[in-house]
Amino acid sequence: MTHRTGWTIAVLLVGPALTGGAMAAAQDSQFGIRGLGTPGRWESVRSRSAGGAFAPFDPMSPLMEASLADLGQLTATAAGYTSNRDVLVGGTTTPLRSTRFPLMGVAGPVRPRLVVAAGFTTYLDRSWDVVLRDSFMLRGALERYTDAIASDGSVADLRFAAASRLSRRIAVGAGLHLLAGSTRMTAERRFDDSTFSRVQQSAEVRYDGFGLSGSVLIGVAPGLSIAGWARSDNRLRAKVADTISAVTDLPRMAGGGILFAPSPNARVGASVAWRSWSRAGAGAFDTWNWSAGMEFGPRRMPIRLGARGGQMPFGPGTQAPTEVAGSLGTGRAFAQGRALIDVGLERLERRGGGLTERVWTVLVGLTVRP
Amino acid sequence: MTRRRLALLGAVLLVAACVERLSAPANCPDFCPSGQITIVDTLLTSSIHRDSSHRGYVLAYQSALMLAAHLPGATDTLDGRPIFRINGYGSRIRLGTADTSTGAILGADSARLQLYVVRRDSATRNLRLQLYRLPITIDTGTTFGALVAPFTDSLVRTVNIDTLLAQPGRKDSVTGDSVVVDSVNHRLLLSLKLDTAAARYVPTDSGTVSYGVRIAADTLASIAFGKVSLGPVLQWYLRVDSLGAPVARKPGVLAAALATFVFAPSAAPIDSTLAVGGVPSAHSLLRVAFPKAIRDSSQIIRATLYLVPAVPARGAPPDSFVIEARNVLADFGAKSPIDLLSGDSAMIHPGATDTVKIEVTNLLQQWAADSTRPTVLLLRPEREAQTLGEIRFYPSAAAAFSPTLQITFVRRFPFGAP
Q1: Same domain (yes/no): B180, B106
Q2: Which of B57, B122, B123, B141 lies most in the core, judged by the most C-beta atoms within 10 Å?
Q3: Predicted-assembly ipTM surpassing the 0.90 threshold
Q4: What is d(CA B284, CA B53) in angstroms, rounded to the nearest whole number?
Q5: B102 burial type by CB count under 10 A (0-12 exposed, 13-18 middle, 19+ buried)
Q6: Pairing mode, if any, of strands B187-194 and B77-86?
Q7: Which of A146, A199, A362 would best serve as a mutation to test chain B binding (most B beta carbons within 10 A)?
């Protein structure tokens, strides 16, 4: 397969996302209903199976750009997640399920020491559907009703990135992020008294925003690397029928990681990230997130384990909801390493404001090196 | 084979994995969207204006029924009398179906008159029907007053329907009358035998006969007779001259050429009140200043029109009637074309003075959906001129009792708000 053919396949893979034809969504949460949404995780299946610890060092994870510098050939990747989520609140458990395709990207060298990448990932998931049973006095009588308010869609992060290895020890990268997406929102009320018509309103809400990021990867010693990244997004603008309905400041964020590879068959990593989500307004919190993980075994079929924890940016009360997760996974290379399939399983628990979410997520990723 | 099974298993898993289930009970306000559905209820007390009434849409002879009533009141008696004319065969008739020769009609031995009673109150007791011979000159313009004399001196038959219903086989063997009860359609088919005196075939009048019906009962004397396919029919039993010898002939039955009714007192003239119903039927138009704020940025979920009767509803007590509100396609006053696709209605009980409520939600939803529609409500009886009932409401000029609209609407949901 020629270099041009490879790029053609890669562009076909990612193209719909870049033109807005496909919008991604990540694992949603009830904690995102009140706020802007549920932030996506900018990690490939390989990284996420290890708790996200390898994301700063993984060229297929759209967290950092500098890690792209060591990509020797054109590579495209995509991921799909299926989540089974139990929401526990007020003694009631509601099982929910969703399937998302939150990641797609392509990267490859265009010049010696210059690698470029394009792709999309979920910035904010805004898919939810709540049903409320209540009553109120209307025309002198107690009227009972059922409300169903739903949002279906997300805000995607379309990233254009470039990275370069400046020296044997240092690689740098930068990225331009276009935030774009839409949600189809519906609000419906059904009265028990049929003399009141059903209330049904809907609108398509479109979002846009802009961000810049930069990162550095440093080889401290043979087998030991550290990484640092920073990103700033300006604001998320919501439009309904060409009328601006809301403008919300987006967070600045920074993070770092460490990777230790004592042998070709063992890698251990950890990472941390801070995000100033409190800029988004009331009910939003700054968050810290950490992760640690390992990968061992032959590269053709390694075993991955990881754990992560931290805070969620939106929730009721004065304290940010928390989350903690454990994950495991593996991968398998095919066709002399030109195709890789990664699978993973994650168990996640989120708590806050009297609500608990427990999630099983099955992760499937495909990476192609034409 | 194993590969095929694996592919099938994979396809099943893929389909199962793509099933979305996002609907969860809300736990508000902590885990609900910040925007809520906002309901507003408002009373438009002065938005109806330039209202008017018009009479003459359906006249008695255009009604689908012939109304009979005799209801004494405090000041007058509501008296409705069906009248009908049945044209005859002329002075001659064919002697046989295979013979084109005709014979002079000498007279009638007898006749049988069939009448459908299509509406009656089962609580009515001792219902009596009186058949009168009327002048054959009756027409659509004949008035109640013009028939006072024949309705006084030309009685030809009296039938007690309750007595007839009580007869074995619902047949009176003495008079030859019978009645058939159609319990499915709630009708009675009266079959009255008329003797030579009651059914006079006068060749010089071409055999045309006219009859009128009066009814009486102990209470609630109000019924309706059918018209057209359920109208009066007459079967003559004639004597015809055949080469000098009289022969009996039974020609085909004849339907009524004219079927209408006269009544007293006649409908009061239109005044400043909003009249609906009666005979000839009356309509009222209500023009509404529909607030732009409701029309443009909200969804109407309920709208109720309140009308206060100016006088007790007229009509026969057992004959409650329905009035309906409809939109018009264009406002041309009395001749406004009516939108027949949707309407809302209310039941009116004669004698009642309670405020009438009509749910007009779908009509106002049409106004909100199409700003080119005239915001005019038309009130009319659901079945025009099929009851003597009429109601009159206070107009907008009567400030304390003017027509009022209560509208419940939903403001635009704050989509896009965080």
Answers
A1: yes
A2: B57
A3: no
A4: 4
A5: middle
A6: unpaired
A7: A199
Question: Are B272 and B384 in the same domain?
Answer: yes
Q: Are residues B222 and B359 in the same domain?
A: no
Note down the domain range covering B324: 39-59+268-411
Chain A environment of B17 (Cβ under 8 Å): 82, 99, 362
- The SS3 of residue A306 is strand
The SS3 of residue A54 is coil
Q: Average pLDDT in the B20-25 region?
A: 74
Number of domains comprising chain A: 1
- Bridging pattern class, strands B178-182 and B155-160: unpaired
Give residue-wise pLDDT tens across range B93-119: 988 877 788 899 999 999 999 999 999
Top residue of A97, A198, A202, A359 to mutate, by most chain B CBs within 10 Å, is A97
Terminal Cα distance for chain B, rounded? 54
φ/ψ of A57, rounded to 5, equals -110, 0
CB within 8 Å: B26 and A147: yes
CATH number at A246 reads: 2.40.160.60
* Distance in Å, alpha carbon of A77 to nearest chain B alpha carbon: 19
User: DSSP letter at A332?
Assistant: E
Which of B240, B264, B288 is where one domain is finished?
B264
Count CB neighbours of A169 within 10 A.
Answer: 12
Q: Which candidate from A96, A191, A201 shows the least CB-CB separation from B22?
A: A96
Same domain? B214 vs B281: no
Residues B120 and B237 in one domain: yes
Please report which helix (H) or strand (E) contains residue B283, including its range.
Answer: strand B282-288
* Whether B23 and A316 lie within 8 Å, measured CB to CB: no
User: Which segment of A302-311, A331-340, B140-149 scores lowest on mean pLDDT?
Assistant: A331-340
pTM above 0.80, yes or no: no
